[in-house]
Amino acid sequence: MDQVKQQPPPALHAEGVVKRFGQTVALDGVRLTVRPGESHALVGRNGAGKSTLVGVVTGLHRPDEGTVEFGGAPAPAYGDTAAWQSRVACVYQKSMVVPDLTVAENLFLNNFQARGAGSGRLIRWGGLRRRAAELLAGYGVDVDPTLRAKELTVEQRQFVEIARALSFGARLIVLDEPTAQLDARGIQRLFTKLRELQAQGVAFLFISHHLQEVYELCTAVTVYRDARHVLSAQVADLSKDDLVAAMAGDAARSAGAWHAGKDSAALARSEPVLKAEGLALDGVFEPIDLEVRPGEVLGVAGAAASGTVALGEILVGMRAPTAGGVAVRGRYVRPGSVPDALDAGIGYIPEDRHLQGLVATRSVAENATLTVADQLGPWGTVLPSRTRAFARSMIEALDIRTTGPEQPVAGLSGGNQQKVVVARALARDPKALVAVRPTAGVDVKSKDSLLGVVRRVADEGGAAVIISDELDDLRVCDRVLALFHGRVVAVFGSGWSDRELVAAMEGVGERE
Ligand SMILES: Nc1ncnc2c1ncn2[C@@H]1O[C@H](COP(=O)(O)OP(=O)(O)OP(=O)(O)O)[C@@H](O)[C@H]1O
Fold first, then answer.
1. Where in 118-273 does DSSP place strands (E)?
2. DSSP states of 1-21 as a string?
3. CATH superfamily of the domain spanning 8-87+170-250
4. Residue ranges per domain, the chain?
5. Equal CATH topology for 8-87+170-250 and 260-345+430-512
6. Which of 207, 361, 412 to mutate to test the pocket of ligand 1 (most atoms within 8 A of CB)?
7. In CATH terms, is domain 260-345+430-512 a member of 1.10.3720.10?
8. Cα angle 282-288-291, degrees, rounded to a multiple of 5
9. Is the C-beta atom of 21 inside 6 A of ligand 1?
10. Among 18, 28, 51, which is best to mutate for testing ligand 1, by the most ligand atoms less than 8 A from CB?
11. CA 22 to ligand 1 center in whole angstroms
């Protein structure tokens, strides 16, 4: 018999996939082919259809048309969860493990029957732990299987979820913005692990708005735009400008890497809009003084454990400090009081729109105006016409992809939900806007307009604080404080280099 050397069948092949949600066509005949051992990026603007495709190829959404194959064989029936688990898994930004169970229990959850016939319902815990330790070691994952899932770092949790998927037999793993909550070193450790697994033939579908990560990690890329397939290419053959142009559908505008940089002498003469004195949170950050003057955008840079997010939460009244206080234009703000912070003119763009941001079942218009109900009509009544008018202006300004102001936010893509959170923060014309990683999950093209909106709050005489470890977020700032383990380790005016700022956030070159 002739031995014809054949290419192995693709790890995933989807063809002609159509998915509608009511009137919305989320996928319009798209295709995607991921080869074994490949790291394949799926990119596109907010609302392009990426998450919907992930839902279709992980068995969550039944497509209206089209086919899905794994390793050349048709996908399992929709609803047969165990069969889907043995083909593909998705590691989401949100943890899918059970927080109160141990790593070992999470690894074998739903999989007890796989431990051999005859064991019945009896679970042998010692054996379970041993097998978990073997499994983790087999994939080079250094995590104690007796820890509870809630005790894991984001990075460890992702590794456990990947090991769990592989133990079910899956050879395709979808990673949805996996670096969103990792610091620079965590990202490098994740990428190293992914490369090791790729070398063993595991394929990855990588969903990300970070194009530099696509170039660093991925070998192939597919672009969707407005629910359609635009191109698939080898990453090495595609320039970044061409990639952005394919996503945006028109000639790529330059990302406008502008350092703002205000006249520091003029700034120093004006009274601060936002002032914090001796602000501290025991065990999280040491006393810190802040002054943000009219027209100024202050950046607060730091990695996950730096204390920057807690600082932001204190500025907006979500947490009380252990010492110090905050004032807006000289008006003292009651510590730990969100209503008082709002009254004082503080606006807030939280990082986690799921927990703090939105009411999923309410409309875009209602969510965008949740904090301004008292301003929209007499005696607190909300006039629907005004709510809609404000929402319409925001939909336009922020390029929110929606069927209209009445659409429930649950039906928006993740990035478009984030824009609604931003709209809500702007609804009150805040004097001081505090934004935590405002562009998380927002596509490359929308990032500019969103940061421009934050910048405008300052340009109109207010002040803004951007808390982030994203260099692109920090570029719009006039001044950047870098925190490391709760201490300000560096202050930059305009003109910092990426390398300097990253080094400061990483605590490199810190002086005692
Ligand atoms: N459950 C749903 N109900 C109604 N419409 C939906 C639903 N899920 C998604 N859509 C719509 O389908 C389209 C594609 O959304 P999808 O979440 O796939 O985009 P995405 O590319 O993942 O965007 P993002 O980058 O913002 O996460 C959007 O117009 C969205 O509003």
1. 172-176, 203-207, 220-225, 228-234
2. ------PPPPSEEEEEEEEEE
3. P-loop containing nucleotide triphosphate hydrolases (3.40.50.300)
4. 8-87+170-250, 100-168, 260-345+430-512, 361-429
5. yes
6. 412
7. no
8. 145
9. yes
10. 51
11. 12
Q: Which residues of the chain have pLDDT under 50?
A: 1-2, 112-120, 251-260, 373-380, 510-512
Strands 479-484 vs 463-468: parallel, antiparallel or unpaired? unpaired
Report the nearest atom of ligand 1 relative to the CA of 413: 17
ipTM of the complex: 0.98
Residue ID of nearest Cα to ligand 1 atom 28: 47
Tell me, using a 6 A CB cutoff, whether residue 416 lines ligand 1. Answer: yes
Summarised one tens digit per residue, pLDDT across range 91-132 is: 876 666 788 888 888 887 665 444 443 344 555 667 778 888
CB-CB neighbours of 207 under 10 Å: 21
| pLDDT one-digit tens code per residue, 438-469 | 888 888 878 888 898 899 899 989 999 999 98
pLDDT at residue number 82: 87
CA-closest residue to ligand 1 atom 10:
411
Put simply, whether the predicted model's pTM sits higher than 0.90 gets the answer: no
Cα distance between residue 257 and residue 64, in whole Å: 42
pLDDT of residue 203: 96
